[in-house]
Amino acid sequence: MASVLPKISRVIVSKPCRKTFSSSARHSNGYNFELSETQKEFQAVARKFTREEIIPAAPYHDRNNEYPKELIKKAWSLGLMNGHIPEYLGGLQQGVFDICLTGEELAYGCTGIFTAVDSSNLGQIPVVIAGTKDQQKKYLGRFLDEPLVAAYAVTEPGAGSDVSGIKTKAVKKGSEWVLNGQKMWITNGGVANWYFVLARTNPDPKCPAGKAFTGFIVERDFPGVTPGRKELNMGQRASDTRGITFEDVVIPQENVLLGEGAGFKIAMSTFDKTRPSVACGATGLAQRCLDEATKYSLERKTFGVPIVYHQAVAFMLADMAIGVETARLAWMKAAWEADQGIRNSLSAAIAKAHASEVANKNASDAVQVFGGAGFNSEYPVEKLMRDAKIFQIYEGTTQIQKIVISRNVLSEIENFANCTMALKTVFVILSVLCFIQAADLGKTAILKKITTILNHIPESEKNDFLRYHLNKGRELMLAQLSDNYPDFDYDLDEDDSILLYKYFATNNLVTDEEVVKKVSNIICWGNKCIDFSDPGVHP
């Protein structure tokens, strides 16, 4: 009888192994966040600008609730804005990582000013990822010519985290769209050159969010666009936050991004690229809190020594340092994944949630280290504490991030369960093929064969691999049974182990009772008893 096991092994292994790692990658040390010389130069420019320009000016803009127009111009002239604009337009085409690297430096000085810069990026990213060449040339190119900013207009008075609750609507009339509605809490709302606006274009309330909304580029000067007053917020007062009213705003078809119904997808894809940036901003604030608290703890004395030498204070600083380091690594990983083209929804949510919590804890602890002085506006940590809170709210609250994270965790568990069941069935199939060949293999030998096969498959590909080859394996198994036992009658809906046990063990097709017993045990053990959570048997 022709050998079947080598054939099935080749079928299972060949396709996934076409994609292999290079020899250098195979022996790499994993993530490498060592900065290039160019990155170090941009970081140094941002750091110098922050120390010399932002930090001295921040208290004034905070007290007066004033947008930092002159600082925005200087940041633009230094190349610290619009880094993601494509090269073909004359931009730097920087990745998310590079944008975050300079963003953390700016946030160290003032997160309100950082938010003014970062929110312009947020408004532009939909055009970067979904705009046509003509749209990009028209609406991104202008940012290279003069210090303009954009805005991302999605949130409404009654719809923040629940995007499906958006009431702003656009109705198509001929070759144009007419937009009506109101947006709220829009950063750069009163100073933006244009807005990315998400509006409902399918009036059916049962239409899924993925098809109900459309993304538009809406210019500030379009008739019917009316920004409201600048809000006086608890923190980040340098940023310009307003409501915007759209009343019978006529939008040309050429300003639709990607097509009707694609808005929700664009909006969510944007967050995957911008949430690491929010996390880097929170990290910058957390680092500032640590530095201010450390400096003060070395100056302030109690019982004859600087308070830093009291363990209670020293441990607070240690916890703050732990938070900064882990928050930084979190945004770096999320940004790196975005730049590698890896879907980073999970890592971006983790980075945003974690860094936001760290920023708020560090700000609170910094105030505590300062004591009564920390409660006074003459000291910097009072502002830092007010500024920190919004990180837990905008671009998806911490609770929304945890929903995203928990769903991903649940999905991983479900995928693992499906993977385990598929592994069991593959085990059964290989067992049967061994039996058909009269190969005298026990449980250990078969498990070793499966382990060898699966070790060649990247973890991310195992589910698709098993789903595909499970069916292939079953087809081969049934074909072999049909060839060797023409009268074999099978039911595809029956469990494989029950079917095979019933056929071979009860119909006495093999007279050697020991062989029948051995194969029956292997099948039942593989399909029912093997525990793939046991590290002793997991491939």
List keywords for this structure.
single chain; 539 residues; alpha+beta; Butyryl-Coa Dehydrogenase, subunit A, domain 1; Butyryl-CoA Dehydrogenase, subunit A, domain 2; Butyryl-CoA Dehydrogenase, subunit A, domain 3; 4 domains; four-stranded mixed beta sheet; four-stranded antiparallel beta sheet; 18 helices; 10 strands; 10% strand; globular; disordered N terminus; disordered C terminus
Could you describe the 3D structure shown?
With 539 residues, the protein is of the alpha+beta class. It has four domains: 37-145, Butyryl-Coa Dehydrogenase, subunit A, domain 1; 150-265, Butyryl-CoA Dehydrogenase, subunit A, domain 2 (Beta Barrel), CATH 2.40.110; 267-407, Butyryl-CoA Dehydrogenase, subunit A, domain 3, CATH 1.20.140.10; 411-529, no CATH class. The protein is built from 18 helices and ten strands. It has helices at residues 5-14, 23-26, 37-64, 69-77, 96-109, 111-130, 133-139, 142-145, 209-212, 263-299, 311-339, 345-370, 380-388, 398-436, 443-454, 462-484, 496-506, 513-529; strands at 150-153, 169-173, 176-187, 194-200, 213-219, 225-227, 241-252, 256-257, 301-302, 305-306. The strands form three sheets. It has a four-stranded mixed β-sheet with strand order 1-4-5-8. Strands 2-3-7-6 form a four-stranded antiparallel β-sheet, covered by helices on one side. A hairpin with a 2-residue loop joins strand 2 and strand 3 (176-187). Residues 1-28, 436-441 and 525-539 have low confidence and may be disordered.
Structural class, from secondary structure content?
alpha+beta
> Structurally, how many domains make up the residues?
4
Unreliable residue runs: 1-28, 436-441, 525-539
CATH C-level class of the largest domain = Mainly Alpha
Outline the biggest β-sheet: 4 strands, mixed
Strand content: 5-15%
N/C terminus separation: 30 Å
Bin the helical content: 55-70%
CATH superfamily of the largest domain, called what?
Butyryl-CoA Dehydrogenase, subunit A, domain 3
Provide mean pLDDT, rounded. Answer: 82
Question: Which outline best applies?
Answer: globular
Number of helices: 18
The CATH level-2 architecture of the largest domain is identified as Up-down Bundle
Radius of gyration of CA atoms, rounded to a whole number: 30 Å
Enzyme class: oxidoreductase
Family: Belongs to the acyl-CoA dehydrogenase family.
Main location: mitochondrion
EC number: 1.3.8.7
